[in-house]
Amino acid sequence: MSENEDRNDLLDALNSVEEVNVGDVVKGEVLTIDDDRQVIVGIEGAGVEGVVPAKELSTKPVENVKDEVKVGDVLDLVVISKIGNDKENGSYLLSHRRLEARKVWDEIQKQADAGETITGTVSQVVKGGLVVEVGVRGFVPASMITDHFVEDLNEFKGQELEFKIIEIEPSENRLILSHKAIVQAQRKEAAEKLFATLEVGSIVEGTVARMTNFGAFVDLGGVDGLVHVSEISYDRVEKASDVLENGQKVNVKVLSVDQERGRISLSIKQTLPGPWDDIAEKAPEGSVLTGTVKRLTAFGAFVEVFPGVEGLVHISQISHNHIATPADALTPGQEVQVKVLEVHPENQRLGLSIKALEEKPATEEKKPSQSRNLASDAPEEETGFTLGEIAGQALKDDNKE
After folding, report:
1. Could you tell me if 323 and 329 are in contact, meaning their C-beta atoms sit under 8 angstroms apart?
2. Using CA atoms, how far apart are residues 178 and 140, in angstroms rounded to an integer?
3. Could you give the CA distance from residue 304 to residue 378 in angstroms, rounded to a whole number?
4. Is 255 exposed, middle or buried (0-12, 13-18, 19+ CB in 10 A)?
5. Rounded-to-integer distance, Cα 29 and Cα 70, Å
6. Helix, strand or coil for residue 155?
7. Gap between the Cα atoms of 153 and 124, Å rounded
8. Among 161, 211, 358, 378, which one is least packed by beta carbons within 10 Å?
9. Are 351 and 340 contacting, i.e. CB atoms less than 8 angstroms apart?
């Protein structure tokens, strides 16, 4: 072969070597994987090598590089920068992850243009919101996570959620997402179906969704109804969290429905047996019960003998000794024993006596007129007992004495 032919072959070889520039998409054959978890590739058509760090292999976290690639694989890569210089015959820093990301950004842009939603997994909780992996990283501001206040955002970590695309800017790697928009759309659809079928007085099953100082919100299937703290139990309840738990299944009675304002009022206690339902069996005439003084009036004391069941101890039935007011002998919260004098389940009334369980002093003086006068001060609407019943009972007691 002549010297000219050798020179021509060398020129042809040099001309066939493609120039590599930052931003180019090239093909690289995996030559080896070094101890630093870097993939060394030969760039096809360029006659030079490139380096792909483990973090640039995929948009997903890479635990083991050898699980991702093996020697002989050919990868599509984008040139990030040059390592070294021409005189040193330097190599190139390459990335497969960024090429994948380009494709993801293109796909997300198409979905945004079409008004479609995307699904992603919450990977981090950061100040002000959530970081979501959707092939690229997206951010969900705290105000766009859901339609109610969440005290600890960590409850969303690891969850796969659906998002509406609010803002996309691939050149700045900015993707703003909203889960709240999805929740609101779902609730609106569920509300329309529920309000069309929900009837006042009906009993339905729900799930305790969240609790506040004034009650508990129960999810009826996409729509929350409020159980006021006074409607949780016949017992006195200070806080809903004292008797309920988030996620708990409960039966509730529908008290009212306001479709225009989107409000539903519910009751748990009205699905339970009433405290007066079997009072004649629990508190028959003549029985002795232990109760708590709940409140005092001019005409007597109301004593709770069962949760939600109060009976009246008329002033004439408090003590054998003369007392000017019930407060002379009793205090709210005091535990007392009482004898049942009368039971009226239909009117939810109990007539009780404390003095009937005490020994009558030998020197006791009868004072029927005082008892009757005090009874006349009793406002009927506050006691559930009529004036005639209270005064009549006092006369009976005087006659018995």
Report:
1. yes
2. 6
3. 19
4. middle
5. 10
6. helix
7. 10
8. 358
9. yes
Residues 250, 253, 255, 256: what is their CA dihedral angle, to the nearest 10 degrees?
70
Contact 299, 284 (CB under 8 A): no
- Report how far residue 127's alpha carbon sits from residue 139's, in angstroms, rounded to the nearest whole number: 11
What pLDDT does residue 304 have?
A: 94
Query: In 3D, which of 258, 194, 169, 252 has the Cα closest to residue 218?
Result: 252
Closest CA to 329 of 300, 368, 357, 356: 300
CA distances for 339 relative to 141, 292, 399, angstroms: 64, 13, 18
Beta bridge partners of 122: 132
Integer Cα distance of 323 and 316 in angstroms:
9
Global pTM reads 0.48
How far is it, in rounded angstroms, from Cα 57 to Cα 374? 91
Please list the ranges in the chain whose pLDDT falls under 50: 9-17, 87-88, 369-383, 387-388, 391-392, 394-401
Dihedral Cα 93, 99, 101, 107, nearest 10 deg: 170
- Terminal C-alpha separation, the chain: 145
Distances (CA, A) of 150 to 129, 143, 145, 213, 216: 11, 10, 9, 15, 15
* Residue 62 · residue 54 · CB < 8 Å: yes
pLDDT tens sequence across 312-343: 999 999 999 999 999 999 999 999 999 999 99
Nearest alpha-carbon partner for 349 in 374, 320, 377, 380: 380
